[in-house]
Write a structure and sequence with these properties.
Blueprint: E1 18-22, E2 59-61, E3 66-72, E4 76-84, E5 93-99, E6 107-110, H1 111-114, E7 125-126, E8 130-133, E9 137-140, E10 144-146, E11 150-156, E12 162-172, E13 181-189, E14 198-205, E15 208-218, E16 230-234, E17 248-249, H2 253-256, E18 264-265, E19 269-270, E20 273-274, E21 278-284, E22 295-301, E23 307-309, E24 312-317, E25 320-323, E26 327-330, E27 334-343, H3 356-359
Parallel strand pairs: 6-13
Antiparallel strand pairs: 1-12, 2-12, 3-11, 4-9, 4-10, 4-12, 5-6, 5-11, 7-8, 8-9, 13-27, 14-24, 15-22, 15-23, 15-27, 16-17, 16-24, 18-19, 20-21, 21-22, 25-26
């Protein structure tokens, strides 16, 4: 089986696969199984129309419960995920994916961060792999192959029920050999410890390639914040006598995300942008009251330029500004990262499971004073 066509020339090619889709209108994705519900969140609205008329468009996930979005028990490739819920839940719902019966998730990320909306405030994202459309229509086009089974869940960490609409489309049939498993990991440093780097990935073992970074970056001091370099430690770099030197070192945060000169367009200041592979779709400016710090959302998809590794991978990023005498100032910012990578196995070294307090965003509606 090949992943879905990625080039215009491929779209006309006939392929020996079948398309299935899981949603609240067809929880199993079964052929001919859609729209058969007789009860659901839309039953009252459809009471005069009956079955087939949007009786089950969504699900309600109770507080502190885990809901199974999808279970597939055959070789397949997930090609598209669409999902929406109220923005209050973007940091309190955690999406997880388990491949081929593994008991640990390969994907474990807060919902909003997975869709490049980590601050609980909508940002339009117009990229090849992630699209976030008004008002919180979240789309993923990351191919997610597996050889035997897949299980996707949402955990509600909050004290309030969450209504979720979703559709997960996948292709079955064919050969998935040679296709790696998609992983996504979230880490947050809040604040970043003094003179330390923010870990994006730590000691990933195996063969694979790194394909994406999203940062929700909260600035905790005045001045420019993006002089820090991102570094990729590949295939034994960490095991060298002085394991602090990577194979790939960037030249600055704005450089890594394809921008330049502080993202500062004369007369406009920080300027949002979206492109197929990189962008800064979100700049949240202080409101003079509860939102007292600047916040940024940035993405970088390594689709045309994946970072390949044969044995192991670690990734980190510095937080640097400026101080007197044209010297770098190490910063103690609020940095939340989501990293995407493909790996030859469904399990990888990962951070501790996420907790609601560690995900909370100061100054948002969850604050009792707002």
């Amino acid at each position: 089986m090949r992943p879905a066509p990625s080039q215009p020339a491929d779209i006309s090619r006939l392929r020996d696969v079948r398309t299935r889709s899981i949603s609240p209108e067809n929880f199993t994705g079964a052929k001919g199984g859609g729209g058969r519900a007789t009860e659901g969140t839309g039953a009252s609205c459809a009471r005069e129309l009956g079955p087939g008329w949007k009786i089950s468009p969504s699900v309600d996930i109770a507080p502190h419960q885990i809901f199974e979005l999808a279970a597939v028990d055959e070789a397949a490739v997930i090609t598209h995920i669409w999902l929406t819920t109220h923005r209050d839940h973007w940091r309190t719902l955690v999406v997880r994916a388990y491949w081929d019966g593994c008991d640990e998730p390969a994907i474990e990320v807060p919902l909003g961060d997975f869709f490049a909306n980590g601050w609980g405030t909508f940002a339009q994202v117009s990229s090849q792999m992630i699209a976030a459309n008004p008002h919180g229509g979240f789309n993923s086009y990351w191919p997610m192959p597996f050889s035997r089974s897949a299980r996707l869940t949402l955990e509600n960490l909050s004290d309030e029920a969450a209504t979720v609409y979703y559709q997960i489309t996948y292709e079955t049939g064919g050969d998935v050999s040679g296709l790696a498993y998609l992983h996504a990991q979230y880490r947050r440093s809040n604040p970043l410890p003094e003179r330390e780097t923010h870990p994006i990935l730590v000691d990933i073992q195996g063969r694979g390639h790194y394909v994406g970074t999203y940062l929700a970056w909260g600035v905790n001091s005045p001045g420019w914040w993006g002089e820090g370099e991102i570094k990729f430690y590949l295939d034994g770099d960490k095991q060298q006598p002085d394991g602090s030197f990577p194979t790939i070192a960037g030249t600055g945060t704005e450089d890594y995300f394809g921008g330049a000169w502080n993202f500062d367009v004369p007369g406009r200041g920080y300027t949002e942008y979206n492109t197929p592979y990189l962008g800064m779709p979100q700049v949240l400016r202080p409101d003079g009251l509860y939102r007292s710090q600047q916040r940024f959302g940035l993405y970088r998809w390594h689709i045309a330029d994946p970072i390949h590794f044969d044995e192991d991978l670690s990734v980190d990023i510095q937080a640097l500004g400026w101080m007197s005498g044209h010297r770098y100032r190490p910063l103690r910012d609020d940095i939340a990262s989501t990293a995407w990578f493909y790996l030859d196995r469904p399990r990888a070294n990962r951070p501790e499971s996420l907790a609601a307090d560690a995900l909370e965003i100061a100054g948002e509606p969850m604050d009792p004073l707002t």
